[in-house]
Design brief:
Distance between the termini: 57 Å
Order of helices and strands: HHHHHHHHHHHHHHHHHHHHH
Number of strands: 0
Radius of gyration: 21 Å
Helix content: over 70%
Largest sheet: none
Strand content: under 5%
Shape: globular
Length: 418
């Protein structure tokens, strides 16, 4: 990498060496929680909620870029910065909320992979979960070989998911005019659409991904002077835009596939299992098989990334690490509990995304504070335009969360009743 920064090595192959952190973070934006919320959005409302996916993706790009900038400029991750700059009660509160979010994340990811494996091999869901646990732990072992090995593994999985949804778009009879309208015309038809919209944001803008990205970039490249740092930041910003644009298109493809297959006549389809079984008669066996491959890949890869993020959050806030097998065991216990209690798996996935959306302001606000402080960022402090956009994005998320909580507790909201 130093040869690329110094100009000794040029060309596309050299710049590829800087690709990795945003690719790993992007898997969080294509996890099984996205499948659950996107299927419900497409089946229930057709193409009308595509604008929510676009909005969430733009917010995600901004905050992942800011997280990467924090790690590159300070050499520290967001959890470490929070521990060193906030009062202890605030730090403990942030850690608890972040751990709850990490568990909610793993619930969605772990259940998604297990559902896919159970459907593929006709297994009880509990056995699908056991296989998912073994496979994810096996992949996590490769982290010992260094960051590049894990980046290549996760990058391959991202490519598989993206390819699967490219195939789905070629199979599904998408109404591209309606898709374009839904993408550019904001609308929330009813209160249920609001719940799904918040779930989409919770499934797209992920708290653990914001924490993780700053850790993936801290100290990854040895910078010798400020010109090197500026180059690394430029490469990072390009990678964030490209990686999350791909993730955003995958999410849009999920909604469009569900809209084209289920909205007319099957709008009540809301579960991943039901969607899989109905895809064969509606779009053919190939569509169903590709859907399943993407779901399994998504569940396993995002569960790996979620465990990595959980380790980083604990280490950053508490200066404490646990063995990876113990971390893996603790975070997957809620998923086993959900199945053991007989709770509907897809409902659990959607609920987990709402929990994530409520937890999301914690890293968002902290990130805005740190990247706006000149004493921390120096010459790389965010400018007024970026700061304003970040505040608008965080306000939008907080506003949606407030409306959702009001709806949950029965507080009347005029615009939803009109």
């Amino acid at each position: 990498m130093s040869r690329v920064l110094s100009g000794e090595r040029r060309g596309f192959s050299g710049r590829l060496l800087f690709v990795g952190p945003a690719v790993i973070a992007s898997i969080a934006y294509m996890d099984p929680g996205n499948y659950a919320t996107n299927i419900q959005a497409g089946a229930g409302y057709g193409y009308q909620l595509l604008w929510v996916v676009l909005l969430a993706n733009l917010i995600a790009m901004l905050f992942q870029a800011l997280s990467a900038r924090l790690g590159i400029v300070t050499g520290r991750n967001l959890a470490e910065m929070s521990r060193d700059n906030f009062p202890k009660p605030v730090v403990w509160g942030m850690w608890v909320v972040s751990e709850v979010a990490a568990m909610a994340t793993d619930l969605a990811e772990f259940l998604g992979g297990a559902i896919g494996l159970a459907l593929l091999f006709d297994l009880p869901l509990i056995w699908g979960m056991a296989v998912t646990a073994v496979v994810t732990y096996g992949i996590l072992i490769f982290e010992r070989r260094g960051f590049r090995t894990m980046e290549l593994i996760i990058g391959t999985m991202v490519a598989i998911i993206a390819l699967c949804y490219l195939v789905e778009l070629l199979i599904a009879p998408v109404d591209w005019t309606s898709a374009a309208t839904g993408l550019t015309t904001p609308a929330l038809p009813d209160a249920a659409a609001l719940t799904i919209a918040v779930g989409i944001i919770g499934a797209t803008v992920m708290p653990h991904a914001i924490f993780l990205h700053s850790g993936l970039t801290q100290g990854r490249v040895a910078v010798r002077h400020e010109e090197d740092r500026r180059k690394v930041l430029r490469y990072s910003n390009i990678e964030v835009v490209v990686a999350l644009a791909i993730a955003g298109m995958v999410n849009m493809a999920m909604v469009m596939m569900a809209a084209s297959a289920f909205h007319q006549g099957y709008s009540d389809v809301s579960e991943i299992e039901t969607a899989y079984y109905m895809l064969t008669p509606l779009l053919g066996a190939a569509a169903a098989s590709v859907f399943l491959v993407s779901l399994i890949t998504s569940g396993i890869s995002s569960s790996v990334v979620g465990t990595m993020a959980g380790q980083m959050i604990m280490q950053g806030f508490l200066h404490f690490r646990v063995p990876i097998w113990l971390r893996r065991l603790v975070t997957m216990l809620p998923a086993f509990g959900v199945v053991a209690l007989g709770y509907n798996a897809t409902d659990a996935l959607v609920l987990s995304q709402v929990v994530l959306s409520i937890a999301l302001p914690v890293p968002m606000i902290a990130l805005i504070i740190f990247t706006s402080r000149r004493d921390i960022m120096g010459a790389y402090v965010t400018g007024p335009v970026v700061r304003l956009l970040a505040l608008v994005g965080a306000t939008a998320v907080l506003g949606l969360n407030f409306v959702l909580l009001a709806q949950t507790f029965g507080v009347p909201i005029a615009f939803l009743q009109g």
